[in-house]
Amino acid sequence: MLTSTQPTPHGPQLLGQTLVVLGGSAGIGLETARLARVQGAEVILTARNPERLEQAAHEIGALSAAAFDATDQDQLERFLEGLPKPIDHVLLSGGGPYYAPLAEMDFDEARRDIDRHLLLPMRIGRHAVDTVRPGGSLLFISGTGGRRRGVGLTLIGALTAATPAMAANLAVELAPIRVNVIAPGFVDTPLSASLLGDRLDARRAELRATLPIGRVVTPADVAALAVHIMTNTALTGATFEIDGGQQFVS
């Protein structure tokens, strides 16, 4: 005979924990910070734009906020060294990708992109040993650019393909701190809007018509996955794709 059980009620999943969000003034970073607050966490936000950061910090009731460029190694080190310790989780919300055909590539910008997407997570990992508690987590936002092949995708394809390998190795090297990656497809964020411009509405319509989920992936979807990864202590060294099934129809 089949029996049913009532779900066991749970309290806030992040109660008493502290989350640092690097790149937390908009989009995925802000939405994850907002959900973490709902789940009981104290949140420390950083971003480059002081005005937008101040507004975001006020909106979610952040514990504190610091405006600086995380790719500036000195500023990053000062920030991490000044954090109240131990921190439970660190989320790095990635900046926009650099697309350029090889013939037109600005190699100075390419180096900056490598710094943002590959070297910055490594720097955070090195400091995590003295900052993040054992069993806490580092979570890096990447993307799915490594899937595609085409003109203008060489750099972003290489970086998004390299990120899972980096995270898997950091998970071993930094254990018992956990290291994971979220790789979203298209997410309806201000960054996406700035990249697509007047093509944004057409892209939304295309995705609603073709994605198996029948809608566009939102920052809230990614935030829900991020909080799950933070709270599920069996997860480390993994890359989690969230694209609404785009890989099956592209």
Overview of this protein structure:
It contains 8 helices and 7 strands, in the order βαβαβαβαβαβαααβ. By secondary structure, it is α/β, with parallel strands linked by helices. It has one domain (18-190, 218-241): NAD(P)-binding Rossmann-like Domain (Rossmann fold). The chain has a 7-stranded parallel sheet with strand order 3-2-1-4-5-6-7, sandwiched between helices. Helix 1 packs across helix 8 (219-231). The longest helix is centred in the middle third of the chain and has 22 residues, at 107-128.
Q: Compute the number of structural domains.
A: 1
User: Can you tell me the CATH architecture?
Assistant: 3-Layer(aba) Sandwich
CATH topology assignment: Rossmann fold
User: Strand percentage, roughly?
Assistant: 15-25%
Question: What distance separates the N and C termini?
Answer: 45 Å
Short overview:
The protein has helices at about 25-40, 50-60, 75-80, 105-130, 155-175, 190-195, 200-210, 220-230, and strands at about 20, 40-45, 65, 85-90, 130-140, 180-185, 240. The protein contains eight helices and seven strands, in the order E-H-E-H-E-H-E-H-E-H-E-H-H-H-E.
